[in-house]
């Protein structure tokens, strides 16, 4: 009889554990949000889609996307065109849409080419948010990106503090691209409104190329020998400008501000060839893209916006901000 | 012996339930985020602080704040100055800071007066985000608000579709307040860049007052009898403009666009005296303010931004968007 008693106890105990375990785990494994806290299901897959999918910059965005997914207990996938090729990106996006994921975070290489696919996804009930570069006329719910004008403002203030708020400065940029025009305008406007003893003497085309940007910077220094600083609005060109300053042996006279945090730029910041570079809020773009998609998928959105054509169920524009990277904090910006 | 067996079974079963219950509930009641999903503790209190705390507009913001708190399993408190009185708001804010809450979401009546208190809170380790109106030079982490220029763009496009993209239009506004200047500029720029057959003929001061705005609108209609539409950039004035159109018996000739969704405006939209009004993303301001504060309190922020002076641990600016409210969807906007 005693043997049987223990057996009963064991069986009933095991069953109780099994039953409670099932009961408690149901909340977080179900399709809907957990009773307590925000949590999804691992079967919920959110896809991040880029172009030139191998570049470093996207890795920081993807890290934010993955960090949010881990906290919310959902799955992610990373896709993108290998090349800077809009037809390839369209093909990838169409393949992703066909799988009906829980949501898509997309960076747009070309708004005109990709808007039809974005709208098709939204019409099919797949939430889409855009990051880094947008498609203003598409049905995507939100754009999470750098406010480029503000980035230019920050560059101007940083330059001012580097050169003691006094002297001539130049810009090397891509004058035909909207985001670079905005960076240049923010720089220009801030110099003229906040720093009466500074003057912007030249804006030159560096074509986003290291050699072309180097030559543009050299021309600025030859034409304006008094120049105290050059702001380059893109990553690759910034390295070229630093090359030029080195070649002219003007490292102590001309300060260089670059953009983004690719490895070559960071190395030059560490060595002092570039005085400062501007880090975009890449992690935040990825993190809040996933949060927004999760909220759309679960219907956790503004209750007022359900029935209108111009509805804003989510914030429509998110400026993820800029951080100034100098020798002091450059170590934080190398990819781990 | 049989009786004892059942007693044993009962006791062991009860203990197992107790133990498992304790084990599972620990995650969500602890100070840190739950193992699965985002969840806080009810002891964590987040405070929303306004001025003129009784007005309807804040109720929608508070609803978003509360909805987020419920999902994240944390507590909220609502505080504010009863009057439009910056000293009273400062006193309230100081009282809130003294209680060391988990975070503060604040709308700023006067940036200059409130910035020292905001900075004091942040320096004391209390996260602060701002909503609706900001304090650009303060240490607050983020501003969640309407992009007023974009709101003006939306108003212009709405007006164009109301009057068939053709005819003279006017604006009644508060020309000395920055947010109203931005709304007017967005309206003006969009008319001139997108609608060649429309013309902005008058911009008048309504002082945010129903009578003054009524008189301003009457003057516009007398001076420009061909006027087809008037955009009023604030809530109270919009009602006055609609009064003027009624008094002049021009309801079928002059379209009125108002701002915000207080009850009088909504009633006029329902009756057709106001053709459209612009709803701000108040719920989103509240909802994402709480989310941001929760992320700051729990350290769930951009890992790159920890050690820099200009750090952006969170998105710095969030445009919560605008929704166009017309007869078709006005029913959604009455406070429940």
Give an account of the 3D structure:
2 copies of one chain form a homodimer. By secondary structure, the first copy, chain A, is an alpha/beta fold. Chain A is built from 10 helices and 12 strands. Chain A folds into 2 domains: 121 residues, 3-Layer(aba) Sandwich (Rossmann fold), CATH 3.40.50.2300; 140 residues, Rossmann fold, CATH 3.40.50. A 6-stranded parallel sheet of chain A has the order 2-1-3-4-5-11, with helices on both faces. A 6-stranded mixed sheet of chain A has the order 7-6-8-9-10-12, with helices on both faces. In chain A, α2 packs across α10, α3 packs parallel to α4 and α5 crosses α6. Chain A starts with a helix and ends in an 11-residue tail after the last strand. About 3% of the residues of chain A have low confidence. Chains A, B: Pfam families: Peripla_BP_4.
Give a topology summary:
2 copies of one chain form a homodimer.
Chain A: H1 2-29, E1 45-50, H2 56-72, E2 75-80, H3 86-98, E3 103-106, H4 111-123, E4 128-131, E5 143-145, H5 148-162, E6 167-173, H6 178-194, E7 198-205, H7 210-223, E8 229-232, H8 235-247, E9 255-259, H9 263-271, E10 276-280, H10 282-297, E11 317-319, E12 322-325
Parallel strand pairs in A: 1-2, 1-3, 3-4, 4-5, 5-11, 6-7, 6-8, 8-9, 9-10
Antiparallel strand pairs in A: 10-12
Helix pairs in contact in A: 2-10, 3-4, 5-6, 7-8
| CATH level-1 class of the largest domain in chain A | Alpha Beta
Q: Give the beta-strand count of chain A.
A: 12
The coarse silhouette of chain A is elongated
Rg of chain A is 25 Å
Order of helices and strands of chain A: HEHEHEHEEHEHEHEHEHEHEE
Overall pLDDT confidence of chain A:
90
Based on the coordinates given, report the CATH architecture of the largest domain in chain A: 3-Layer(aba) Sandwich
Oligomer: homodimer
CATH T-level topology of the largest domain in chain A: Rossmann fold
List low-confidence stretches of chain A.
Answer: 25-34
Distance between the termini of chain A: 63 Å
Count of discrete domains of chain A: 2
Describe the main β-sheet of chain A briefly: 6 strands, parallel
Q: What is the helix fraction of residues of chain A, given as a range?
A: 40-55%
Going across the biggest sheet of chain A, name each strand in turn.
Answer: 2-1-3-4-5-11
Instruction: Tell me the CATH superfamily of the largest domain in chain A.
Output: Response regulator
Largest interface by Cβ-Cβ < 8 Å:
A-B, 64 and 64 residues
Class by helix and strand content of chain A? alpha/beta
Beta strand % of chain A: 15-25%
């Amino acid at each position: 009889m005693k043997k049987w008693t223990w057996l009963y106890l064991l069986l009933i105990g095991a069953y109780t554990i099994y039953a409670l375990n099932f009961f408690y785990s149901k909340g977080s494994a179900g399709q809907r949000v957990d009773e307590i806290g925000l949590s999804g299901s691992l079967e919920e897959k959110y896809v991040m889609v880029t172009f030139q999918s191998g570049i470093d910059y996207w890795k920081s965005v993807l890290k934010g996307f993955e960090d949010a997914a881990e906290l919310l207990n959902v799955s992610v996938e990373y896709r993108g065109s290998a090349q800077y090729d809009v037809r390839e990106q369209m093909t990838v996006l169409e393949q992703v849409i066909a799988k009906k994921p829980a949501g898509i975070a997309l960076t747009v290489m070309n708004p005109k080419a990709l808007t039809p696919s974005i709208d098709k996804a939204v019409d099919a009930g797949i939430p889409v948010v855009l990051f880094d570069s947008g498609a203003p006329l598409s049905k995507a719910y939100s754009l999470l990106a750098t406010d480029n004008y503000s980035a230019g403002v920050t560059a101007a203030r940083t330059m001012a503090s580097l050169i003691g708020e006094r002297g001539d400065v130049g810009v090397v940029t891509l004058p035909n691209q909207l985001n670079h025009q905005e960076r240049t305008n923010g720089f220009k406007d801030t110099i003229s409104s906040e720093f009466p003893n500074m003057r912007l003497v030249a804006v030159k085309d560096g074509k986003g190329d290291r050699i072309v940007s180097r030559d543009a910077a050299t021309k600025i220094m030859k034409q304006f020998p008094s120049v105290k600083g050059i702001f380059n609005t893109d990553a690759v060109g910034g390295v070229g400008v630093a090359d030029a300053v080195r070649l002219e042996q003007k490292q102590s006279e001309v300060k260089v501000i670059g953009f983004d945090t690719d490895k070559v730029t960071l190395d030059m910041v560490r060595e002092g060839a570039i005085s400062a570079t501007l880090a975009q809020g890449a992690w935040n773009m990825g993190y809040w893209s996933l949060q927004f998609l999760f909220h759309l998928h679960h219907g956790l959105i503004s209750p007022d916006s359900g029935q209108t054509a111009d509805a804003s169920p989510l914030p429509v524009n998110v400026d993820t901000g800029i951080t100034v990277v100098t020798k002091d904090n450059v170590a934080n910006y190398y990819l781990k």
